[in-house]
Design brief:
Largest sheet: 5 strands, mixed
Structural class: alpha/beta
Distance between the termini: 31 Å
Number of domains: 1
Number of helices: 8
Low-confidence stretches: none
Order of helices and strands: EHEHHEHEEEHHHEH
Shape: globular
Helix content: 40-55%
Radius of gyration: 18 Å
Strand order of the largest sheet: 2-1-3-5-4
Length: about 270
């Protein structure tokens, strides 16, 4: 069983589509919704005194303790031995005011170093600045995507900004139909369209991540060249800790597809 920990409910239907399109046979998922942000997670994990040290803990038990304290029993009865891999998906939330920008960045750096292996403590993926980055495109494929950034001052309004900027009125262009009355012909046509849209997003996000990390707007020679820690470090150096104080828009789901799916059938390569 593979454990997926999402920051909020909005990621769940998106992942359901990804599973049906790309991972239906490979993944036996167990979904957990954390219902809080990455900096809350840091504070809770820090209480176990493992971040920054050498000790590793049972991530499933730690998450369960945190969730139970919030009245959430999602992971109760799930043991570490039941889980083969752990993936966590959270937003950068550039504008978050829990701490200073420097403090928040330090905490996220520590989390990325700790959650860096899916078969160990888990692997953390970050959306920049949040999950709505999936919608921040013109009609797909969007060749200008590599240049899109958002200043910190606008991140608190990013959901609205993304909705007005996007060519698409909702997430429907990325979602398979759940209508049982829809004809097979319409379902098949929609699946082809949605699949192609996701392949475009994979292509755009991978190239953009490599441009951010390595200065080359093409696929990296190795997947680890655009790992989550490398992306975060490059975001800080080139955008966040600069006079412009912005962030390069990236979404973690396309990068997860690229990293996790072997022999990904992308006809854009």
């Amino acid at each position: 069983m593979i454990l997926f920990v999402f920051e909020g409910e909005r990621e769940c239907p998106v992942f359901a589509t990804l599973q049906r399109l790309f991972f239906e046979k490979e993944i036996d998922p167990f979904i957990c919704v954390y219902k809080s942000n990455i900096y809350s997670l840091y504070s809770k994990i820090k209480e176990y005194d493992v971040i920054g040290g050498m000790e590793e803990v049972d991530t499933v038990s730690v998450l369960n303790d945190i969730l139970v304290s919030q009245g959430n029993n999602t992971l109760s009865g799930i043991n570490e031995s039941d889980i083969s891999e752990i993936f966590l998906f959270f937003d950068y939330d550039f504008h978050h005011s829990r701490g200073s920008l420097e403090e928040n960045n330090l905490h996220l750096k520590e989390l990325l170093e700790y959650f860096n292996e899916e078969t160990g403590t888990g692997k953390l993926y970050i959306n920049y600045p949040m999950i709505e980055s999936l919608r921040y495109t013109k009609a797909l494929p969007d060749n200008d995507y590599v240049d899109y950034t958002i200043p910190r001052s606008d991140c608190c309004r990013f959901k609205h900004i993304a909705s007005t900027f996007s060519h698409y009125k909702s997430f429907d262009h990325l979602m398979l139909s759940s209508n049982p009355k829809e004809s097979e012909e319409k379902k098949n046509l929609r699946e082809q369209t949605v699949r192609q849209n996701w392949l475009h997003l994979v292509d755009m996000n991978v190239r953009k991540a490599n441009s951010l990390c390595n200065g080359e707007h093409k696929y990296p020679h190795r997947k680890e060249y655009i790992g989550q820690s490398q992306i975060f470090t490059s975001q800080l150096e080139k955008h966040v800790m600069t006079e412009e104080c912005c962030v390069s828009i990236l979404n973690s789901f396309p990068l997860f597809i690229y990293e996790y799916r072997e022999n990904l059938p992308i006809d854009l390569l």
